[in-house]
Amino acid sequence: EVSEENIKRFQQWMRLNYQANILSVMDWVDEISKIGRERQKAFLQYALHMIRESLVSNFASNDLQRLRREEQDFTQKFSPFIHESNAIELIEELEKAYFDIGRNANPKILFTDLSLKMALLLRIKSLNLQST
Fold it and tell me: Which of 3, 22, 126, 128 has the most crowded Cβ, counting Cβ within 10 A?
């Protein structure tokens, strides 16, 4: 179930992480820390879905994508930042966070740490881009 809330929250999070806007990231973390574990887990599942869709859009034809209109527009701009040099680590970090939230991790610490890792991983350049 894709909620409008998760679409907006994910897009905002990725923009803030990419900009490495730490104060705004901390505000974002405060917000998501209040929504409860089940909604946090649903958000992390959605984030994994969007990373996957971004990879698909980079390496496969668009008919493999399962996205709404507002997700497609975002993914077109976002997908160049998801590539062979960072995709596996991004997915592993999101999966670990999902697991840890389920095991009662402190959401503020978890999402702060995850956001900082995302900010670093999103700034890794694709090996393909470096060779040109």
Answer: 126
Q: SS3 string of 55-79?
A: HHHHHCCHHHCCCCHHHHHHHHHHH
Tell me the mean pLDDT in the region 21-27.
Answer: 94
Mean pLDDT confidence for 69-96: 91
Count how many residues are written for the chain: 132
Q: Choose among 22, 42, 23: nearest CA to 32.
A: 42
| Torsion angle in degrees (nearest 10) through CA of 68, 21, 41, 73 | 10
Q: Greater confidence, 118 or 67?
A: 118
The token pair at 113 is 């740490």
